[in-house]
Amino acid sequence: MSDELPSTLEALEREEARLRERLAKIALVKDLLRELTGASPSQTQFKPEPPPPPEPQNAKESPTEEPPKTPPAYDGTFNGLISAYMDHERSPIHELKHSVRLNYERSFKRLRKDIGDEKVIDWNARTIQERYDEWAAHGDKIAMGHELVGKVRMLAGFGSTELNDDACIRLSTILGNMRFPVAKGDGAPRLTRDQARAIRIAAREQFGWNSIAFAVALLFDVPKLRQLDVIGEWVPLSDRNQSDIVKGAEKWIRGLMWSDLDENFVLHRTLPTGKGGRNEKRMEFRLSRSQMAMEEINRISPDKRKGPMIVCEFSGLPWSANEFRRKLKIVAERAGVSLRSQPDDSQGEAELEDEEAS
């Protein structure tokens, strides 16, 4: 053991001598480089890299992980109740279609303006009736009154179940015992067969808008289809529904595709059912028995039956809802058909949406 120690010490001394020799050579090279470049000693001084940040204590957590969102604070006002309904993670609004959500937001905007600063606890049956009469213009705008008081009823129900707020529970109970009139004939206009045919002819022959003629034929022959089901809708890219059809910051969803139609001209379609359209049902429609729809399909060559069924002639993409309605009104006026008119008979009628663009 005593013989090994001197040999180890000698080896260390030899290694130290080699290192000193290498350091001396490095110093000579550095001096030479300074003379050639004119750099100061501080500029060539070695600076060690800072140590990496410490790992998070919990290995499962990412350093950039966002903290969980907390439900928005509710201050007892209708403004606070609307904000809670819009942002709460369990709010039904997150399950709504984009177009329906936009309608909700328009109603909420009106409610914020009219009653936003009012306290929910201050409302009673008399307050509700006074507000309804104001919104319904004392009978001249029953649909508007019914729409807004319905949203108040919905907000109170949400505050009762999700926020467990005593004022909302009380208001929800009061509203549950009140009834409000429904506007007669309130809904989408209906067309007779002759009216639908006149619109289709005007669209094709006077404007060259074959897509509108096709859409009208489908809406007439398949009454269960709504305008949204036929032409689809453009939604933000953040929408949860998938789509390969994109335009700028929007994508197209829900419209009819040629792939929905099989070789026997049976249209396969999943449509919303039940209250609020929250349920869905797979349906089949045999278009081979639909005269108008088949007339329009036969005008389109088989090699062009790809992608969306209803495509705007100007953009080559599906129509936006507002532009489709605007063009449909123009065509209907040229055809001498009022989209607000009621049909003369109940056989062979189709519903067409006629909402004004906001």
Can you describe this structure?
- The protein is mainly alpha-helical and about 350 residues long.
- It folds into 2 domains: about 100 residues; about 160 residues, hpI Integrase, Chain A (Orthogonal Bundle).
- The strands form 3 sheets. The chain has a 3-stranded antiparallel β-sheet with strand order 2-4-3, with no helix packed on it.
- α4 packs antiparallel against α5, α7 runs antiparallel to α8 and α8 runs antiparallel to α10.
- The longest helix is centred in the first third of the chain and has 34 residues.
- The N and C termini lie far apart (about 95 Å).
- The C terminus is likely disordered.
Summarize the structure.
The chain folds into two domains: 78-176; 190-351, hpI Integrase, Chain A (Orthogonal Bundle), CATH 1.10.443.
Low-pLDDT stretches:
59-63, 341-358
Strand order of the largest sheet: 2-4-3
Number of helices: 11
Q: What integer value in Å does the Rg equal?
A: 35 Å
The percent range for helix content is 40-55%
Biggest pleated sheet:
3 strands, antiparallel
Number of domains: 2
Order of helices and strands, N to C? Answer: HHHHHHEHHHEEEEEHHE
Number of strands: 7
Which CATH architecture of the largest domain would you pick? Orthogonal Bundle
The average pLDDT value, as a whole number, equals 81
